Amino acid sequence: MPRLILVRHGQSQWNLENRFTGWWDVDVTEKGADEATAAGALLREKGVLPTVAFTSVQSRAIKTLHLVLEAAGRLWVPETKDWRLNERHYGGLTGLDKAETTALHGEAQVKIWRRSFDTPPPPLEPGSAFDLSRDPRYAGIAIPDAESLKDTIARVLPYYEAAIAPALASGETVIVAAHGNSLRALVKHLSGISDADITDLEIPTGQPIIFELDDNLAATDRYYLSER
Description:
Layout (H helix, E strand, L loop, with lengths): L2 E6 L4 H4 L13 H17 L5 E4 L3 H14 L6 E3 L16 H8 L1 H9 L33 H21 L3 E6 L1 H12 L3 H4 L10 E5 L5 E6 L4
Parallel strand pairs: 1-4, 2-3, 2-4
Antiparallel strand pairs: 1-5, 5-6
């Protein structure tokens, strides 16, 4: 049966600093690297070995994938990077301290920006310090100025259907190393979680989530590998 492994990147520097990150490229911390290595070791121990890999074009996810695969003895598997697996774009919140933003705008407003399904944060101003328009990895891409979870799902799911689902259907064991919101999109789709309930789903860093799928790629089971 097809099997899908989801891994959120290990702790990043801005996770540690409690800052909104989104599309900005930051590295994993030493703890984040350790989380990724531990995830790969767990895959190896449990015999859940990926045969093909997907990740975003963001360093924290790429590095996590490589550390996971190395620890699992699978660094050689084919790997595809695509911006559509990127984290949600936090727009004008990018780089801001979450606690300071809450103090400035109020807890209720920040909760809407962070957790509502279809309300994006304020847009990123052109020419901002976090403007990615000259980043070569996004050449030819219409970079959003902000995204809601709904917007993120709207780019992740077509990519899943076009690239990841065919790999699963052909019998591959697929690993996707990505981000909290891009993985939330996949979990929502595969588990049939409602728009209202998906905003409460937390995905921890460096913990492999396993989806057992039937031949139609419908989920028959979802679990943390550490719990089996």
